[in-house]
Amino acid sequence: MRGRLWLSLVPNSNWQGVIQQYRKYLPFADDAPIVSLNEGNTPLIRADRLAEIIAPNTGLNLFFKYEGLNPTGSFKDRGMTAAISQAVGEGAESVICASTGNTAASAAAYAARAGIRCIVLVPEGKIALGKLAASLAYGAEVISIDGSFDAGLDMVREIVQRQPIVLVNSINPWRLEGQKTGAFEICDQLGGTAPDFHCLPVGNAGNISAYWLGYKQYEMGLPRLIGGQAAGAAPIVTGKVVKNPETVATAIRIGNPARWRQALEALDESGGIITALTDDQILDCWQLLAVKEGLFVEPASATGLAALRKTINSGDIDPTGKTIVVVLTGHGLKDPDTAVGRAATPSQIPADVLALETYLAHSSRNKNSS
Length: 370
Hints:
Rossmann fold; alpha/beta; 4-stranded parallel beta sheet; 15 helices; 7-stranded mixed beta sheet; 11 strands
């Protein structure tokens, strides 16, 4: 088996966040105020066991960009540092967003860091507990609406035309400016080159648009993009708006992506593929990430791996000798209910070492016979 590697940027005690690290590639003035939580610098993790599972004997070099290790547990922090910094620079006192959870948590944290008001709209009963808890903890004003994320986005788009509030959803161009730094980091972590394929979940389509923007700007090579949408929320795959999107992957439960057009452009320019995955396919990869590589992510994060696996199995791509990066967009604690709901019931034994010894012998026999 190939040697297992954990790749990250060289440990840097002077790291001050993605804007400071890549300032020359970002449209901020030298004296612009920067609101940062030292986001970015997330690890690129080599995954040889999973490479052999999804593409045996092909020499696939598989890596995961673990964005769940950003300050609020998702990739959204890259874009939010840019959006909030720009808002503060323009004198904003309030920001607003609609969210399925990750944007809400990130906006709330960065607004708290900046000392400004944050209002978030979330679809009632459609937000994972970990994300809601974070938004509330950071002090955001959380408003639950009787409608979908798409309805909430329509509402916030309209309210910023009426009130002096800055919209920080991914339709805000500064969000993409921050999120494109993920592509810069991947190229740096791979030694100054882009991967052959770049795989990721697609919800509101800001991230796929931002990564493509970053690869083009950094000029270290252009990967083919592979995007995955949940089958119950796959408007880009089907070519039509999904009025009532449904999927266990709550982060991508979006029926009318704000960056739909840009995502299609990125896919077309890269010769990429976008595919729909069932919840079972997503959850199967979610479990593989945890038990085979020790990577605990929220369900939506596994969609990129599920898309890669599907395109390999269908023969749409040949992974032989290729370097492939899959973005894991959010930490598993974003959605603890899914993890607990799918886990086996913990074993119970008396507080006695003999009972423990009996359990170990029994479980060992069961494992060997299975």
